[in-house]
Amino acid sequence: MRILLLGDYSNVHNTLGQGLRKLGHEVVVASNGDGWKNYPRDVDMRRRSLSPVDSMAFMLRTLKQFRQFRGFDVVQVINPVFLDLCAGRIPPFFNYLKRNNGKVVMGAFGMDHYYVKACLDFRTFRYSDFNMGDSERLSDTNEAFKRDWLHGPKGRLNRRMVGEVDAVVAGLYEYYVSYRAHCPEAAGKLHFIPFPIVPQAALASPYDASRPLRIFIGIQRSRSAYKGTDLMLRAARRAVARYADVCQLEVAENVPFETYTGMLNAAHVQLDQLYSYTPAMNALEAMARGTIVVGGAEPEHYALMDEPQLRPMINVEPTEESVYTALCDLIEHRAERVPQMQADCLAFIARHHDYLKVAKRYEALYTSL
Questions:
Q1: Considering the entire predicted model, what is its pTM?
Q2: Is 290 in contact with 205 (CB distance < 8 Å)?
Q3: Chain centre to alpha carbon of residue 27
Q4: DSSP character string of 33-55
Q5: Rounded to whole angstroms, what are the CA distances from 168 to 175, 306, 320, 359?
């Protein structure tokens, strides 16, 4: 098959493209590299800035690039907003893709109308990016997301595309249950396929009890409070101060993917996604290296993955105290717990997220369409 993967979040499409190529398919990944993360792609669709000159140049280049986006058996877009354009300008590009290609699939891989809607019904999730129980989490970031995705142009675009695409693929538990009430699996449109990860054959940094336990946290400055890394960082600093002789903390802020990967390779423990039920791509990339993740790993996640045994993550409640307690417990029992959990991380990724296994599931979906 000829497959176009348009847009990227956290290296999902680039990794999926690698797997599909291994299976013999012709794949083009076109994206902006997910901004400053600068993930690899075949067609570079970066927008330099929002200035009038750069905006005009971006639009002209995008129109030219879209001439190449014809004759594919499958086009998969990462999100309803799959270009660096305001939502109102995207429908003509979506129409072009539908008119000039075979099937169109939409990813439920990140922020969108149905996820925001589910978070704010105060029933679907006990906690999330938008709620703690029946109370709303208020922030400037959340207000902007609500304005755009609930009733604004992004929400309207999302609702329209759900009706017109041939399939919707959710990559995490949260996104899957958000769509389930509006896009029933029985109708054959909604599918859950885990995120793809290139597995590693060995631990990147095997733990040696005679050396410090290395704890790592990556921070996006603009999303720290939204993702909970502000609370996690405070908890980590408290724990490292308490056990300064046996552990150390490294913090990465807004670094490119290659730099981030190098820092991650040296870590034994990573803190990630405080308000999530599930490990997303950053956490999965860490686990593929044998790095233990402290973050979201609720029972619902393991049930959807059909995993009765392996528990390679440390699940915490979305509070600073919960993270602090979990870290202290791990540090105190590091000699017996860390080696086993590192091995479980590799096993979990190999079982559920191996990019070739995931690519075969996508291949089966595309063929069925």
A1: 0.93
A2: yes
A3: 21
A4: -SGGG----SEE-----SSHHHH
A5: 10, 21, 35, 16
**What are the backbone angles phi and psi of residue 327, rounded to the nearest 5°?**
-65, -45
Distance separating alpha carbons of residues 168 and 145, to the nearest angstrom: 21
| CA 334 to chain CA mean position, Å | 28
- C-alpha distances out from residue 112 to 148, 158, 179, 245, 282, Å: 9, 7, 10, 44, 19
Q: How far is residue 16's CA from residue 4's CA, in Å, rounded to a whole number?
A: 11
CB 218 within 8 A of CB 184: no
Quick one: which of 92, 87, 73, 75 has its CA closest to 29?
Answer: 75
In order, the DSSP letters of 139-169 are -HHHHHHHHHHTSSHHHHHHHHHHHHSSEEE
Is residue 228 within 8 Å of 281, Cβ to Cβ? no
Contact 369, 74 (CB under 8 A): yes
Backbone angles phi, psi at 53, to 5 degrees: -65, -50
Rounded Cα gap, residues 1 and 350, in angstroms: 26
Residue with tokens 């003509």: 92
Strand ranges inside 65-156, DSSP E: 74-77, 103-108, 131-132, 135-136
State the Cα torsion 168-172-173-177 to the nearest 10°.
-30
**Structural domains of the chain ordered from first start:** 2-196+355-368 (3.40.50.2000), 213-352 (3.40.50.2000)
Give pLDDT tens digits along the chain (369 positions).
Answer: 999 999 999 999 999 999 999 999 999 999 999 988 889 999 999 999 989 999 999 999 999 999 999 999 999 999 999 999 999 999 999 999 999 999 999 999 999 999 999 999 999 999 999 999 999 998 878 889 999 999 899 999 999 999 999 999 999 999 999 999 887 665 689 999 999 999 998 899 999 999 999 999 988 776 777 788 899 999 999 999 999 999 999 998 877 777 888 888 999 999 999 999 999 998 999 999 999 999 999 999 999 999 999 999 999 999 999 999 999 999 999 999 999 999 999 999 999 999 999 999 999 999 999
Rounded CA-CA distance 154/114 in Å is: 11
